[in-house]
Amino acid sequence: MATDITWFGHGTWMVQTGPHRIVIDPFFNDNPASPVKSSQVQADFLLVSHGHFDHVADAAEIANRCGATVVSNFEICQWFSKQHGVKHTESMNLGGTIDLPFGRVKSTIAHHSSELPDGSYGGNPGGFLLMLRETGHRIYFAGDTALFLDMQLIGAGGLDLAVLPIGDRFTMGPDDSLEAVRLLNPRRVAASHFNTWPPIAQDATAWAARVRSETKAEPVVLEPGGKFTL
Question: Are the C-beta atoms of residues 51 and 122 closer than 8 Å to each other?
Answer without folding.
Answer: yes
